[in-house]
Amino acid sequence: MDRVLIIGLCAALGACAAVPRTQAVQLAQSGATASDLAAQEVRDLSGRLDRQEELMAFTTTWETCVELPDPTQCEPMEQSDANAQEVGKLIRAINLRAEALTALADAYRALGQEAQYNAEGAMETVVGRLTRSVNAYADVIDPGAGTLVNAPLGRGISMGAGLLARDRQRTRLRDGSARIRAAVVLLRTSLGAEVRLFDALSGSFAEQEGATIEALYAAGLISRSPLLAQMATDLGVTMAPEAEQVLATDLRARGALQAYVRGQADDRVRLQAARYDAILNALAKLEAAHADFETVGGADIADLNRAIGEITALIPATKEAGQ
């Protein structure tokens, strides 16, 4: 009778085979790496967008006040409520995505602990936090979209807890993988909606950076020639001593500089689009790797790691992150 019970439970659990610990550890390590990299990108993006309100306030105030016949009538301006709400929504979403990605990385590390050390219960708390954080992110992007259920792990094996330790561990790993996979799916869907929101605003972000530089120069607060210093260095040439004077008097040179500044801003927008695509691709590979792990006990980690390499190549260097 006991043998029949064991066979029945083995069939329900997907066969009493060896626990796929090595495969789980590999999936956990790659998942944590991808999540940590994506979270790093979020901090850079959020910081750049948070400056948009400051840039717009300065530029709008200058452009308005310079037209006033009486400078004493100049009053500080603010961006429109509609624009402020859209930018604010995007910033909130990005910051919540950072929390969700951090929780995702922690969930992967807990999955690795479970696989390496049979640390029963290691995933329970962190997967619960992952569920809540991904739901919060999804709800900001698309109200009502946060639908992940925070249920205990390993529910299907509670009645057989005294049977075989390896069966309990294998079930916890697969259950934990399924819960993480559900979070990855909702995270990827919500990120797609975030991309659409960013795309709707990105053109104005590029224009705003150029307009702010022009306003700063018109106000006599900056020089133009330093804006070209990096280009000259990259080309292996030296700026002429009279470069600033040329830019002040030659409309052709000044127009070319304006085009260069706008080109830099457009490059930043295109770079962000590439980062979004790389992260979405990595999340898709993670979802597929989890599905394979849950069904056959293995996953195409090489394909996932190639996707991680794409993110790594696009993550901002320390210097850029502070710009």
Topology:
Layout: H1 2-12, H2 21-50, H3 52-65, H4 81-117, H5 122-141, H6 165-218, H7 229-235, H8 243-249, H9 251-296, H10 301-314, H11 318-321
Helix pairs in contact: 2-4, 2-9, 2-10, 3-6, 4-5, 4-6, 5-6, 6-9, 8-9, 9-10
How is this structure best described in words?
The protein has 323 residues and is mainly α. The protein has one domain (18-321). The protein contains 11 helices and no strands. The chain has helices at 2-12, 21-50, 52-65, 81-117, 122-141, 165-218, 229-235, 243-249, 251-296, 301-314, 318-321. Helix 3 (52-65) packs parallel to helix 6 (165-218). The N and C termini lie far apart (70 Å).
Q: What is this entry, summarized?
A:
This protein has helices spanning 2-12, 21-50, 52-65, 81-117, 122-141, 165-218, 229-235, 243-249, 251-296, 301-314, 318-321. The chain is mainly α and 323 residues long.
State the main characteristics.
323 residues, mainly alpha, elongated
Classify the beta-strand content into a percent band: under 5%
**What would the principal axes of the Cα set say about the shape?**
elongated
Query: Which range best describes the helical content: under 10%, 10-25%, 25-40%, 40-55%, 55-70% or over 70%?
Result: over 70%
The secondary-structure element order is HHHHHHHHHHH
How many H/I helical runs? 11
- Weakly predicted, low-confidence segments: 1-15, 156-162, 317-323
Sheet with most strands = none
